[in-house]
Amino acid sequence: MTQPLIDIRNLEIAYGGGHMRAVRGVSFTLGQEKLGIVGESGSGKSTVGRAIMKLLPPTAMISAERMRFHDLDLLKANERTMMTIRGRRIGLILQDPKYSLNPVMRIGEQIAETYRFHHPKVSAKKTYAQALDMLEAVQIRDPERVARLYPHEISGGMGQRVMIAMMLIAEPEVLIADEPTSALDVTVRLEILALLDELVSRRNLGLIFISHDLNLIRNFCDRVLIMYAGRVVEVLEARDLDKARHPYTQGLLASLPTIENPPARLPILKRDPAWLNDLAETQR
Ligand SMILES: Nc1ncnc2c1ncn2[C@@H]1O[C@H](COP(=O)(O)OP(=O)(O)OP(=O)(O)O)[C@@H](O)[C@H]1O
Question: Where is the ABC transporter domain (predicted)?
Fold first, then answer.
């Protein structure tokens, strides 16, 4: 087996001096694949994503048996090392580009600035040309015009394309996308997913796709981690989701609306306190 890009064993993250355990004993590996992390609000999905980037607030207490990116021990990596990893080797795409783009800088300049940061020796002209090429790669028509616009002049979908362009221009090996399409309407969402899919496959990236939308994850990802109350309760191939054995996953699946044979009422998920500790032998 080839070495995983990311290898996490027994990750624990707590707040409030250790009283609030946001992530409890999470283990997984990421290869060149699309790995979904799904779970309800507060289950710890984003905390796992941010822990990999070491972007948790200083109040977070973090420990793990192992937290590696290739051979690099992320737990021991200092801020200087992380500056060479963040953005450059592991990219992060967040829900709303509005908060990630600089409002007073033109789109083309922002993408060029990212490129310049990673390739300081390349000429200004070539750098800007790279930014335009990247806008084209994320299927923005008329990249020269769009490059001259400010973030408030573009739509949410286009903003998300720009964010993807900005992340990919550094040629990362891993992309963490935290609810990247939640702020978009359905048709634009599908376009962005198709774009991500194509870029991830073509560039052989490892993608961690965080979402609360089980249907979306099922269709988009190769493998799915299901999180509940800070734990991974189950890991499944996306195509095997219907064979889920953990009652939480089964409950999530049962509470999804379907167009064919819609039930009169969707069942309400009944949470069993035992799920807080019991992994029902479903974790692989
Ligand atoms: N800075 C913080 N201080 C204290 N508790 C925090 C902090 N950040 C997150 N938490 C808590 O950690 C738990 C996990 O939060 P997290 O944001 O990872 O969940 P999530 O599954 O990503 O939820 P959502 O889908 O709503 O983003 C939650 O109970 C949250 O309140």
Answer: 8-254
